[in-house]
Specification:
It catalyses: 4-fumarylacetoacetate + H2O = acetoacetate + fumarate + H(+). Pathway: Amino-acid degradation; L-phenylalanine degradation; acetoacetate and fumarate from L-phenylalanine: step 6/6. This is Fumarylacetoacetase. By secondary structure, the protein is of the alpha+beta class. The protein contains twelve helices and 26 strands. Strands 6, 7, 8, 13, 14, 16, 17 and 22 form an eight-stranded mixed beta sheet that branches. The protein starts with 19 loop residues before the first strand and ends with a strand. The mean pLDDT is 97. Bound molecules: ligand LGMQ2O6W, calcium ion and magnesium ion (MG). The site of calcium ion (CA) has 7 residues, from loops. The site of calcium ion has 7 residues, from loops.
Length: 420
């Protein structure tokens, strides 16, 4: 498969990918639906006539694609997402002259990514964050609760999660203000109030729910993929000192709800299908509603880089892989609805921090520096235990195809000083 658009060998967005996002430009500041191809964006509102000719199942393309979120498109369901994707691959193909040889339409339809502003891809009604990496849960549990209580007994039986805060989810490139809150200055001291001194990132991915389920209904495991629209990178910024003091007995609250960053391009499950692999062996076997015996993990290589304040260089902090996750995306979605909880188009589910079994694949500074016991060295004598003001964190990820990448672009954010 080859496009008439030039795609560099290291592009995250070849014709095999075609992720969906919401963008605007200076000439046309109205946010609308686009698809990334190479270093360009195909503006779907510019080719609605082609949709009318070729994808007649899609009833009002001009309405669906002129929205400032993907929610409308997501709610149409998987057969229409797939028909749209097939059509886009066809119209972008080097063998198809319809768009390739129509200079006037090409002028209108393509926008350089570097001149576009990206927006949140969806209006996120509800956001849930899971805790699905056994290595991460064990590491954090050990630091917060001690070695003997590291992994709670329920953890191997169900995908543990908590309800997060959707209002503070932002798109890549948005600055995050350091949170203030209560923390213990030392063990057995009363709490003090002030800026978090242990600000951290969490390397995560997240899936967008496409079509939802009605209240009281549940999504069965063999239907789960029909409900998942696609995946993004996610950084669940975490204030470890606020978290450690507040989270018992109910779990994460102000330590995590001040900001969560996601990447702008939603990569569809169809684009990721060639990268399905077996996940870790689940022992004990999960209850039958969570049971799947087909490959359900995705081989997605992940990396986190940091550029400390006053440095010009990024340093890689960790390399991990989505396939390390103990609980699959399908199991997370199925468990979320097993009690009849309804999901809606645009709901976002974070996977939880993705740590591997080695020290260089840990998905947070909490684990990398072991709660600040060790320091990370950067250029020019700069050292870090946690994130300082004006430090920048960038997450990236891709699948390695045969001669192409299926990439997610970047999920970046810089920390601004706390409000006085
Ligand atoms: O209660 C704990 O031990 C820790 C909870 C979390 O850190 C929640 C979280 O964000 C989970 C994750 O990212 O894996
Ligand atoms: Ca998290
Ligand atoms: Mg968060």
């Amino acid at each position: 498969m080859k496009s008439f658009i030039q795609i560099s060998f290291d592009s995250h967005f070849p014709i095999q990918n075609l992720p969906f996002g919401i963008f605007s430009t200076q000439q046309n500041p109205t946010p609308r639906v686009g698809v990334a191809i190479g270093d360009q964006i195909l503006d779907l509102t510019a080719i609605t006539v082609l949709f009318e000719h070729h994808v007649s199942e899609l009833k009002s393309p001009s309405n669906v694609f002129s929205q400032s979120s993907l929610n409308s498109f997501m709610s149409l369901g998987k057969p229409l997402w797939q028909a749209t994707r097939r059509f886009l691959q066809n119209i972008l193909s080097n063998d198809n002259p319809e768009l390739r040889d129509n200079d006037q339409l090409r002028q209108k339809a393509f926008v350089a990514q570097k001149s576009a502003k990206m927006h949140l891809p969806a209006q996120i009604g509800d956001y849930t964050d899971f805790y699905a990496s056994k290595e991460h849960a064990t590491n954090v549990g050990e630091m917060f609760r001690g070695k003997d209580n590291a992994l709670m007994p329920n953890w191997v039986h169900l995908p543990v999660g908590y309800h997060g805060r959707s209002s503070s989810i932002v798109v890549s490139g948005t600055d995050i203000v350091r949170p203030c809150g209560q923390r213990l200055p030392a063990k057995d001291h009363p709490p003090i109030f002030g800026p978090s001194a242990k600000l951290d990132f969490e390397l995560e991915m997240a899936f967008f729910v496409g079509s939802g389920n009605k209240p009281g209904e549940r999504i069965p495991i063999d239907q789960a993929n029909k409900h998942i629209f696609g995946l993004v990178l996610m950084n669940d910024w975490s204030a470890r000192d606020i978290q450690a003091w507040e989270y018992v007995p109910l779990g994460p609250f102000l330590g995590k709800n001040f900001g969560t960053t996601i990447s702008p391009w939603v990569v569809t499950l169809d684009a990721l299908e060639p990268f399905l692999v077996n996940g870790p062996t689940q022992d004990p076997a999960p209850l039958s509603y969570l049971n799947h015996d087909v490959p359900s993990a995705y081989n997605i290589q992940l990396e986190v880089k940091m550029k400390p304040n006053k440095s010009d260089f990024f340093k890689t902090l960790t390399r991990s892989n989505l396939k390390y996750m103990y609980w699959s995306l399908k199991q997370q979605l199925v468990h979320h609805t097993v009690n009849g909880c309804n999901m809606r188009p645009g709901d976002l589910c974070g996977t939880g921090t993705i740590s591997g079994s080695t020290e260089d694949s840990r998905g947070s500074l909490l684990e990398i520096t072991w709660n600040g016991q060790n320091e990370i060295d950067f250029e020019n004598g700069i050292k870090r235990k946690f994130i300082e003001d004006k430090d920048e964190i960038v997450l990236t990820g891709y699948c390695q195809g045969d001669g192409y990448l299926i990439g997610f672009g970047e999920c970046s954010g810089k920390i601004l000083p706390a409000l006085q």
